[in-house]
Structures are given as structure tokens and as C-alpha cells.
Design brief:
Strand content: over 45%
Number of helices: 6
Helix content: under 10%
Largest sheet: 18 strands, antiparallel, barrel
Number of strands: 29
Amino acid sequence: MTNICDICGDGRADFVLLYNMKLLKPTLILFLLFPLQVLAGNTDVRGEWYAEMSLMGAGRRAMPFWSYTNRGGILPSSPGAAVNAGASSAFFNANDFRFSAGLAVAGYYSAETEAYMPLRTSKKSCFRGFLPEAYVSAGWRNLNLDLGIKRREMDFGGLSITGGDLTFTDNSMNFPGYNLHSDWMAVPKTRGILAVRFDFGDYGMWDNRYVKHALLHNQALYFRVALTKKLTLTAGLEDWSQWGGDSPLYGPQPHSFTDYLKILVGSSGGDDASKSDQINALGNHLGRELVRLDWAEEKWTLTFQHDIPFEDGSGVGFQNFPDGVNTLHFSFNDKEKWVSDLLLEFIYTKWQSGTRHDRPATPEELKKNPEKTRYVVGGCDNYFNNGEYKSGWTYNGKVVGLPLFTPMPVGENGITPGVCNNRIVAWNFGVGGMVCRKIPYIIKVTYSRNYGTYGQRLAFFDDVPRQFSGALELTFRDLLPYMSAMAGVYADAGRLFPDSVGVTLKFLFKGDFGRRRAL
């Protein structure tokens, strides 16, 4: 787990393993070797440190949605106080080698409350500690390797509900593991018209979940085509696969190297797999298909992106259209304008390839094959849920992907049993800029209609609760040497979350360090 410590109001303290020692040991060894690299040759060394303290208050026992969403999974959904501190360094070598390392710790004190209304329960005041980052990275030319826990990057200036990736947002902490990835690489003999990039990684899901110590594989491939000097098209496919682990129902799941190869190609499981994994692909696969257009002028850029989820072959085959996150983003290069960024998003995940997964065989089909009484039609995709990996696409109780999906309440065993609301229709509007070229601001307003799931898990969603959530954030830079502050006002109105107005005041201390040697 990445929760390093829980100390609750009953005085009980639970210390848990940060993550598998097989991942921790090489991370620490490489972290200690970085100073040797710096001393070994001509190197440019740069780094920064930061410390944050946040105070959060609300008229009710629940903070509004935007105050804790997409914050790296380290802020509470109830009033309280939080701290976050860390440092990172980057080392640049004359031979195009790059090395970096980062470490951060965080924690909050809060009387925790379930974030949504249907089954709200309050807990005793609780302190929780986290390790949001502990990584080392190496790079050469267009290739990069990250090892450890590294916080993900967000696109669209912090205005988007997903940050540009509906399966992998900043709503939860990241997983411990490795990620081999590339920058955009021009394809030879295409005159710079075609470029490609990829991701290939493996992780461990060490939180308290239904299938203990589940493994996680990620692979993605993207292509970028320069249609004109100003217009580029990006398209790609990304797959996440939960596999292995120890199921309380089926016991240890297949986890051999042969099984790993099956995960890579989406093949079905062998005799040691469950019946479902023998019929379908081994493990729990989910992902996204991306189509994006960027029009870049000298002073501004206009982007349209269609981000499509999938859970099985029906989604990969676009049978779930029009489901997806549609983002329209206009951005000036000059970020000191009163309005530098405008964003509009339409989110639709209601169809899910149809209302049923299979259908009875027709009389003609029964004549041809009397033993096959049902045929799969591919509906009821049930995004971010899985019948065997019941915690679904959640980590430490938070949805890893699209934050508008609602996680099930945590059970008595501390396990989140998946997602109870993944059929939504929503709009998200955002604007950002700078007041008098001095005070950066962000405004976000989100409206959603929430339909629950096809196989309704909570009757609360039968009436399709509606929800408005808004945010206004102002950043006051350089108040004192190394010190800035952010003031945020947030509000919720509707039936999904408690009607509430909340305020966050964050103090940020930040500085640089480093030295240069001739390259």
C-alpha cells in the first residue's frame, strides 16, 4: 500500500508496507547512486523543494467535490488540515543521458465522511499518511524509464475533469512499479509527417482490495500525423490489465511468465484460470482509444479530443459509441492574459455498447447448434467494474480514472467493492488566466446526471440524481521569499453530494537548488 500510516480516533495505529520490497530495494539503490553519477563527470544538476500546508473548512461535514478531486489522492473529502512536502533533482549529462529522482510525503487530519449522500457515514477523527512520490528516472534521447511511484502529469491547464486521460487521472495516488516510455519519435523516411510514442509498464496494486496484491500491466501506442503545418492528428490505444493476486473466492490467480504473455496479447486463461477468464481474456482489461486534433497558430492553440473507454472487444470495436469524454480547449501561449484558457467538456458514458451483454439464441440458431443457447452481443460494459477483481478500477478507495464515476462505500473490511455509478451525462466548463498579470485563477463548473449502473447496485440512482459542482481558485505568488498562497472557494448543489460551500487556504513554500558544470 501507499498509505504509510493510519492513526484514528480510537488510538489504534496501523503501519503497513509501502510497497513490495522487490520494487523498493532497487529504487533506493538507484537513489543513492545518483550522487556518484553527478561526481563522475561533467553534469548539470538542477532541483527544487517544496512544502505545502492546507486548511480546509466547510459548512457541513463534507467538502465540495472540486476541493479534493484530482489532487493526487492525498486530500480528505471532509474539513481538516493537510501537509505535503518533497524534493526532486534532475541530472543532465553531456552524452544526452538524463537522471532524476523525487521523494514526497503527505498526510492529513480529518473527521472522514463518505463523499456522497446515499450511504453517508462519519468516522472518528483520523490521521493518514501517504508516500505520493518515491522514484528514480533515467533517460537517453527519446527513451525514458521511471522506477517507483511517480505522480502523473495533467493536460489542459488543470481545467479538465480527466486531465486528458479518462483511464488515468490525478484522482488517486499512482502505483509502485516501472514505466518504460518514449517521447514523440519521428518515423524515418516520413519527412517529419509521422511520429510515434509508447508506454510499457508493470505495477503492483498494494492497497486494501478484494484481490490482494493484484498485478497491473500497462501498454499504449500513439501515432501523430502532421496533416498540415498547423494541424496535427493524434490517435492511439491504451490498455490496462489487472491480473494475478490472491482472490478470496478463487485463491491465487495465474501469475506465471506464460500468463504474463497472455496478458500482453489479451489471450484467454488456461486450466488454472477461472471459467470467465477461460472464456474471455485472462485478467481484467480496460483502456481507452484516443482521437485528437490540434490546430496551432503563432499565438494560440485549439484542441479537440475524443477519449473513448473500453472494457472488452465491443468497446474496442466502437460498439459503445457515443460514449467518451469530448474536450474542446482553446489556449493562448501568453498565460498572463486575463483569459488564457477556455475549456468545454461533454462526458457521456450511458450507452456502454447496449442494454444487455448477451441474448437468447434464435430458433434458427438453435437448429444449427442446440447446445449454444445464448449469444454475446457485447453490451453492459460496466466501466471500471469486474466480476472477479471486484475492487475494479479503484485504488485506496478512489476511482483511478474519470472522477465523475462514484465508488461504492467502503465496507467493514475496509475494501471498496468497485463503482456504483458509471452511467453519466455531464458537462464541464473551465476558464483560466491571470488577474492584472499578477494573480493566476481557475474557474470550473460541472453539471452531471447520474444513472448508476445497468445492474443497479444502489436504488438511490433510480431517480437519476443531478449535481452541480463549482470551484474558484486564486494564487497569490511571492508573498514572501519562497512563499505563495492559494485561496479556493468550492460549492456543491444537488442530490449526489451534500449541498455545501467550502474554503481551502494553502500556503506553498518552494525553492530551487543545483549547480552547473561545463558540458
